[in-house]
Structures are given as C-alpha cells and as structure tokens.
Amino acid sequence: MIDKLVAKIQKTNAPIVVGLDPMLAYVPDHIKEAAYREHGETLKGAAEAIWEFNRRIVDAVADLIPAVKPQIAMYEQFGIEGLIAFQKTVSYCKSKDLVVIGDVKRGDIGSTSAAYAAGHLGHVEVGGNVYAPFDEDFITVNPYLGTDGIKPFTDICKKENKGLFILVKTSNPSSGEFQDRLVDGRPLYELVADMVNQWGADLTGSCGYSAVGAVVGATYPEIGKVLRKVMPKSYILVPGYGAQGGKGADLAHYFNEDGLGAIVNSSRGIIAAYKQEAYASFGAEHFEEASRQAVLDMIADIDGALKAAK
Amino acid sequence: MIDKLVAKIQKTNAPIVVGLDPMLAYVPDHIKEAAYREHGETLKGAAEAIWEFNRRIVDAVADLIPAVKPQIAMYEQFGIEGLIAFQKTVSYCKSKDLVVIGDVKRGDIGSTSAAYAAGHLGHVEVGGNVYAPFDEDFITVNPYLGTDGIKPFTDICKKENKGLFILVKTSNPSSGEFQDRLVDGRPLYELVADMVNQWGADLTGSCGYSAVGAVVGATYPEIGKVLRKVMPKSYILVPGYGAQGGKGADLAHYFNEDGLGAIVNSSRGIIAAYKQEAYASFGAEHFEEASRQAVLDMIADIDGALKAAK
Q1: What is the pLDDT of residues B270-292, one digit of tens each?
Q2: Strands A186-187 and A182-183, how do they pair?
Q3: Is ipTM beyond 0.95?
Q4: Which residue of A has its CA nearest to B83?
Q5: Is residue A245 less than 8 Å (CB to CB) from chain B?
Q6: Where in the sequence is the active site (chains A, B) (predicted)?
C-alpha cells in the first residue's frame, strides 16, 4: 500500500492528504436542511449531512489528490449512525481510487490491538465467512504501550498489504509535555522514532519506503528536520498545516532529497474553505468548489516551498 | 460518578470489575449456533452472539459486582454490528445499575478529544435536539498527547459527572519500553501520574477520590506500590489479574489504608471461566454459572489478600 501511496503522490504531484473531519458546524445549511428534512434532527440526520458533505468534497477534489484522512472521532461522536457515515466515506473514497488513512489513533495490549487491526485493516472470521469491517488502507496508531501493542498491527500490514502511521511528535501545543522529555539525553520522540524504524524494518516496499510511517506535526519544523534524518525510510504524515498554524515554508524539511517522504494533511483548511475570507466569494452553495480551489492553492504552496528549498 | 463507583464497591464489598471482552472463541457453541441460525454467519450473527453471551453473564453476576468494563476493540472488530452490540451492552449494564467503564483508550489533539468526549461521555447537538450516543460512565484515555488532549475529557467529566482512567503503567510485557524510561531520574509513568493528580485536582468527589483515575497493571506490583503513593486521591484501575499473570497477593499495594482506591479487572478469567479446569464441571451449557463462581472466587482472593496485608 505504501507503493500505491507513493505512486499516487507522484502521479498527482501532490504530497497532500485531505482530512475529512466534518464538524457539523462546517456543513453548509442547505446540506444540513436536506438531511434533516429526510431524517429529522437526529443522529441519522447528522450522519447523512456529513456523509453528503464528504461525498461532494471528494467528488470535487478526487482527481487532484492521492489520499484522504477521515478522523473517526468526528463520526464516532454521532454514535452508530456516525460510524456508518465513516464506513461509507472510507468505501466511497476507495471506489474513487483514493488511498484512505483512517485517523483512529488506536493502540492497546497485544490481544486488543489484534482486534483493532482486524477491524480496521484486516479481516474477521464468523463461522465459515470472512469480512473486512472498516478496511482502511492505513491507520494511525498510538505507541505508548510499546512493541507488543504495535506488532499485531504490523503483522496485519504484512499479511494484507496495509500501512501505519505511528504517533511520534504530535501537532498540538502540549505535545511536548511527555514527547519532548529527555531520556538519556534524547527526547522521547526520538526513541519512538527509533522504534518506528525497527517496527517497519521488514515492511519496505519497492518504492524504498516502509509501510510503517510516522506522524510528525507541521507545527514543530525544527523537530521535523531531525526526525526526517532519524527515520529515512518512513513516510511522515504531517498534520497541523493551515488552521493549526503550520506553513508551506516550514514543510520542506519533512521531505527527503528525492522529493518524497512526506504527506501533508489539511482538514478545516480544505473542507471548510468556503468559510475563509480567501474563498468566501464561492459562497456556501458552492462549498465544494471552494475546497477544490483550496486544494490547488495548497499544492502550489507546498510545491513552491519545495522548489525554494532546493 | 466516582462517588457512585465507591458506594457500589462498599455495598458489594467487591473492588472488582468484570471485563466484557467477548472474543468469539469464548462464546459457547449453543449461543453462537442460535445467533447464526437467526442471522447467518454474518457480522450481525457474531454481534448477536456476543451480545447474548454478555447479557447472560451480566444477569448471572450483576448482584455481586459494582462495575463492568467492556473493551470496545472486541466489538469494533465486527464493524458497525459489533458497535451496536457494544452500545446495547453499555445500556443494558446501566439498566442493571452497574457502573460502566468503556475501555476505549482514546486520546487526540484538543478538538478531536472533544469529539470523543462528547460521543462517549457527553452529548452532541443536532439542530434543536441533544443525544448521548454511547454514554459510558467512565472511559480509559491515552495520555501521550499531553494536557490539551486530556482537558476536553475532564471538562465533560465536570459537566456530566463522569470519570476517566488515564493509562499510566499498562499491564503488557513491553509497557516499559517507553513508560519506564527515566526522565530527570524518574520513570515516565511517574510524570504521567503527576499529571493525573493535576488533571483531577478539581474533580474530587465527596468520597475523597478524584473522578480522574489511573490504569496501573497488576503485572507490575512494585510499581503499583509506588504509584499508589504518588496518586493518593486517584482510583487505580488494575488490569492484568488472572489470565495475564497478576495474583491477588500482589494487589494489596494498589489499595489505600482505607481499603479503597483500587478496582481490579478480570476479563477472560471471568467470562471464559467455563473453559478453565477449575470450572470445567459447569460445562459450556452453564457458562454463566461458571462466571458467577469465578467472580465469587476472585472476590474471596482479593479480600483474603487485603486482610493478610493488614
């Protein structure tokens, strides 16, 4: 799957991922009203509104991008109906040949991680039948429990040709509270990065990158520069661009000299573009066109930053 | 909610929680066959089997115990249908007046943690209506992202009278890989424990304990002894008893001198008791009675250990 991701990044010339994190507040009124007319102001109504919102954005941007990253919390907050919208979103994006990164940040003791791995990346057996319940291509995983909490995920990646992004240095303001603490003179995030190398060592694709990648926030570019060198074979998923404060110029350090090695996420900045001054002229009625323009602008911003850094 | 948990522990004289982590392999054939007859060997069939398995165990043990801890991964692996079984299990246990600890180990950046907190502990608004999608009483939370990833959960706990158990030292073999690393001469788990105190400081119930508790594995009793003192006002949720190797005699250190302060989880040891030699005479047909006997034996084991330690 890492080979597919890299091939799609090269084909689109767009090392970006659109975060499908649909807060109800981002969904234009005409979409919400249509959903509520059919299903009432219910959890199903909310779920249908975010699903329709997603579908229109995906239709508007799918030809420009390699991948999407639905954040499951935004669906899970609406309970079962929300999770049905998550599943429909994953499935629809795959039908559009997009690589789907499930931002689920799961992680537990071995036997429990095995269940998450089966449900999100693999298969479960029921009697004589086999099912792939959520079937994302990649998921994000929390490393706090160590190797035996990660191994069930890497085992499934090997078997099913899937991939992971392990949280190494997250984009939020207080990520340093534990992640930056020095252990034997090195920050904890570097120790986690060492383990990412180890966990992914026998999962290298023909593209030269491992199926085990890392999450490193755009909001910490100096740390990104270090971690790029610590994990030369890991793709870095970079959240925090745009709304969280990360800028294109900060991003060059997350890439390798081959121009590959990083994929930058933007969520609000794309899906709620029509709410920004720069795209307000599209109007809420044409929110998907605002999202398309925001994608084009993001690609140009990152392309410019990469060219300037050469 | 911490007051309710403590009151129920005192009333039952049982500082234990039954982990409702139903692997299909634990479910007796007669339960599976009945579910498959009605729904086929499908995800719905699997989900109905684990729901019926849960229901019978809960009916058999509810009068003996204060709380249950469904592990969401075991349901999530069966996709939407599995999550419906999770929701039914939560709701059924609450109707039996059991305290429900959702073992979900969520945790993300602030805005995303807020969505998880709303979905699992709080409410979401859809138009003019308000829903409580999963509505557990407590959930487990991963601390790797630091304070701004925790605050949305503590905010909801305050507002909705709910509680948390933060992962401090997990029960699995490789938990020490990151959690035990020394920072300024102290293991990382102690730094997390310091933050648990801080996060829970203004959430103390009338019982004297905070609504922000901690997870500390039964498999590390010497660490449990230290962490008990570091977090005097936190309830400690202790996984790893029984199948994972923790013994009753190891558990005394997790309790305070008031006889309170810890709640010990057993999952497999209770719900799959009929598969153990000690309870094999019950037979698969009477699995729920085997579970009841295993609960009685666990209560006696812990009670004996607490008395011996006095």
Answers
A1: 999 999 999 999 999 999 999 99
A2: antiparallel
A3: yes
A4: A80
A5: no
A6: 105
